[in-house]
């Protein structure tokens, strides 16, 4: 089947393309950008007049709740939500139930993802068995089964010796590791340790809970030479630490969640459990430093850190509620909002959702080029709609962005040349 | 931030926190308590203001004194009182907390007096109760204990002339204290000249400046020229988690002794929300001494709680009038 996308503003940050050109797709492959190939007869035409045509988005971290918590969400529901948000590739962290620490679990997830066939689902394997921080997983076998990297999810490895061994082992197999930096002893509480937690009487998590862990991990990364990525930075000082490491030539990258770029501790207001998230929303200054880190290129990806939850999980006194935000469907509009607010250039914004996260993962995605798989996101930058979490396709309606005005909206998503959302 | 504890006319509908309330309302609570405190001296200690109303004391955390004074206050207003002590373990999930509430609502209660171990619990309950139910916060986690703060303000007002001239020092575990947070807010709203908090860094919030107070780690410096000293109870479990080395060392550094009391103004009053750990945060000779008003605080607790209950249920009548 031949599809053409005409009259759109095509943005492909990987080669700085930003022009009104047409895109021609045969089956699942882009066969031309610009001139129509001579033998091309379109079966299907998408008129993208006034719209932005960019690579399908790549999300570094999204929990789909399957296997283990299918009552909350499934691969089926969440990949539908992903493509509604323009995301065509996403990574599942290993903290499913069972944990992704055997090839069988990887195969199970990939099987189910293939059946839903809406987006490419990548698995990140566990760095230690059952994420317990004691014994290494069979990283070579997991890689052969399809894992694209390794992480200990939200369970920090307390024992520095085990972490060092895990890094050394991963480094010798040339595998990437993903880190959610958290000092397990300081990381106790439910809100940023600051003015708001002092006022509301909530247990505070100091910024050192993150910076101490990053500092330790960076020293071990330097020693072991492992290729590492830090997820979900929340503090300005963390950005500073990563920047120094990058300047020293360390092979480290970092991402930030879309919500940490927009919200701060003040959004907890009067115990709003929808703003209960880990790492916690920090000060306005931290938020500005995260945005600056993105502009400077220290942070190279924006991720959803999607955590769908059922309503009961958010019903209760703040500390008793489950942290997490359903983020797949707000990733793009929130990122575009930074462009509208002049915090980020359009090409930086798209790059931090497409080719840059793809480069972190080392996957062939996030680019519009001849010969590439036709994963494409078409955005209306003048949509003006109010965010209504109740209308989310995701099974998780837990979003603090209700009634926010979003100017950008995904109009079409193509995955392997097929229209998966429109 | 919306203040959902007030009606459209600015009257008390719930009483969840001192924060956001205006000085005239705090004064009204104290004036009303002044009227009620005379009732305790009458032969028949009852008024029929809340006859036919059902008040549920919903205590998810143990308490004897607070619950008893709430119960007495309700009974002196002629309300029917039910006491429910619910162990927190049975309702650790928000869902079942809500279920408990809706069941009690279905029994046509008019007011919940709530104590809960989590900060924000009273606010959460107030957001989810039926419109005809008032919620009084009897202490939520480390957040607020507004009736305790008001009885303390009432006690101060009985002894001191003019709030703006006062210097008040709160000593001890501010970090975990809902009482201190509410006191600081009430003192600020009433225009107290200077509010000090005194304690080691481990027992003070990391961003105390956000509370609008002066911070002292040295008790002797902090007590200079003080008119009111409020000592807080030190929970014995604070030795765990390395917040303090020992009760003995705490008493040496931050216990209120006769010698330290002399540093404050000669007519300074000594307060404590109770129950007292003698020899930990306060010496017996001070607790029982002439400057102590600790037992008065307990007595005033009844009048303040009568005032708040009658005001909140009075606004209910106002709401019904609108319907």
In summary, what is this structure?
Chain A has 422 residues and is of the alpha/beta class. Helix content of chain A is 27%, strand content 21%. Chain B has 323 residues and is of the alpha/beta class.
Strand order of the largest sheet of chain B: 7-6-5-8-9
Number of DSSP E strands of chain A = 22
Q: What's the total number of strands of chain B?
A: 9
CATH C-level of the largest domain in chain A: Alpha Beta
Largest interface: A-B, 24 and 29 residues
- Order of strands side by side in the largest beta sheet of chain A? 8-9-10-11-12-15-16-17
What's the SSE pattern of chain B?
A: HEHEHEHEHEHEEHEHHEHH
Q: What's the CATH architecture name of the largest domain in chain A?
A: Alpha-Beta Barrel
Largest sheet of chain A: 8 strands, parallel
Q: Helix tally of chain A?
A: 11
CATH-derived architecture of the largest domain in chain B: 3-Layer(aba) Sandwich
Mean pLDDT level of chain A: 96
What name goes with the CATH superfamily of the largest domain in chain A? Metal-dependent hydrolases
């Amino acid at each position: 089947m031949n599809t053409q996308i005409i009259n759109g503003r095509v943005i492909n940050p990987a080669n700085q393309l930003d022009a009104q050109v047409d895109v021609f797709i045969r089956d699942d492959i882009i066969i031309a950008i610009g001139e129509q190939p001579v033998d091309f007869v379109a079966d299907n035409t998408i008129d993208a007049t006034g719209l932005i045509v960019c690579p399908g988005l790549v999300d570094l971290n999204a929990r789909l709740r399957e296997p283990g918590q299918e009552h909350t969400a499934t691969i089926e529901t969440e990949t539908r939500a992903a493509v509604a948000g323009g995301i065509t590739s996403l990574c599942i962290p290993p903290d499913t139930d069972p944990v992704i620490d055997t090839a069988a679990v990887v195969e199970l997830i990939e099987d189910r993802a293939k059946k839903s066939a809406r987006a490419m689902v990548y698995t990140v394997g566990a760095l230690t068995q059952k994420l317990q921080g004691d014994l290494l997983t069979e990283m070579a076998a997991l890689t052969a089964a399809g894992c694209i990297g390794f992480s200990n999810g939200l369970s920090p490895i307390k024992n520095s010796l085990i972490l060092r061994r895990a890094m050394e082992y991963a480094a010798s197999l040339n595998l990437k590791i993903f880190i959610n930096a958290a000092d397990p002893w300081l990381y106790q509480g439910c809100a940023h340790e600051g003015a708001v937690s002092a006022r509301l009487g909530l247990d505070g998590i100091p910024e050192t809970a993150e910076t101490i862990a990053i500092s330790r991990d960076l020293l071990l990364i330097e020693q072991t030479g492992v290729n590492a990525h830090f997820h979900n930075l929340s503090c300005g000082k963390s950005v500073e630490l990563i920047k120094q490491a990058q300047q020293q030539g360390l092979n480290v990258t970092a991402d930030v969640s879309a919500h940490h770029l927009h919200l701060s501790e003040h959004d907890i207001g009067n115990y709003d459990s929808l703003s209960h998230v880990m790492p916690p929303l920090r000060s306005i200054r931290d938020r500005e430093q995260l945005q600056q880190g993105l502009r400077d290129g220290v942070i190279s990806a924006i991720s959803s850190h999607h955590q769908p939850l059922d309503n009961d999980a958010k019903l209760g006194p703040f500390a008793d509620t489950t942290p997490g935000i359903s983020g797949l469907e707000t990733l793009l509009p929130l990122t575009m909002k930074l462009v509208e607010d002049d915090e980020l250039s359009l090409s930086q914004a798209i790059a931090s959702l497409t080719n840059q996260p793809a480069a972190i993962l080392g996957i062939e995605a996030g680019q519009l080029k001849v010969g590439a798989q036709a994963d494409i996101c078409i955005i209306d930058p003048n949509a003006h709609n109010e965010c209504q979490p109740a209308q989310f396709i995701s099974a998780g309606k837990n979003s603090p962005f209700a009634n926010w005005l979003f100017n950008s909206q995904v109009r079409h998503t193509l995955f392997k040349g097929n229209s998966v959302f429109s | 931030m919306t203040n959902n504890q007030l009606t459209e006319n600015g009257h008390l509908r719930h009483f969840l926190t001192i924060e956001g309330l205006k000085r005239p309302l705090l004064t009204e609570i104290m004036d009303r308590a002044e009227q009620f405190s005379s009732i305790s001296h009458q032969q028949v200690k009852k008024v029929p203001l809340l006859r036919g109303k059902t008040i549920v004391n919903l205590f998810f955390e143990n308490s004897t004194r607070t619950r008893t004074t709430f119960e007495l206050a309700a009974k002196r207003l002629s309300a029917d009182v039910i006491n429910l002590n619910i162990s927190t373990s049975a309702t650790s999930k928000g869902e079942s907390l809500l279920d408990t509430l809706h069941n009690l609502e279905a029994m046509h209660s008019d007011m919940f007096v709530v104590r809960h171990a989590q900060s924000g619990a009273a606010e959460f309950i107030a957001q989810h109760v039926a419109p005809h139910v008032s919620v009084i916060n009897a202490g939520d986690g480390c957040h607020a204990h507004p009736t305790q703060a008001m009885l303390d303000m009432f006690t101060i007002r009985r002894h001191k002339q003019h709030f703006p001239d006062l210097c008040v020092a709160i000593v001890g575990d501010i970090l975990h204290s809902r009482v201190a947070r509410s006191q600081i807010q009430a003192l600020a709203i009433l225009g107290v000249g200077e509010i000090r908090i005194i304690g080691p860094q481990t027992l003070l919030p990391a961003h105390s400046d956000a509370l609008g107070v002066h911070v002292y780690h040295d008790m002797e410096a902090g007590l200079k020229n003080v008119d009111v000293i409020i000592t807080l109870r030190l929970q014995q479990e604070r030795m765990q988690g390395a917040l303090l080395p020992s009760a003995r060392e705490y008493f040496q550094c931050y216990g209120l002794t006769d010698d330290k009391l002399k540093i404050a103004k000669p007519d300074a009053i000594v307060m404590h929300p109770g129950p007292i750990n003698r020899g930990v945060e306060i010496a017996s000779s001070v607790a029982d001494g002439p400057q102590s008003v600790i037992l008065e605080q307990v007595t005033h607790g009844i009048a303040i709680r009568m005032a708040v209950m009658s005001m909140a249920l009075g606004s209910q009548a106002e709401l019904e009038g609108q319907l």
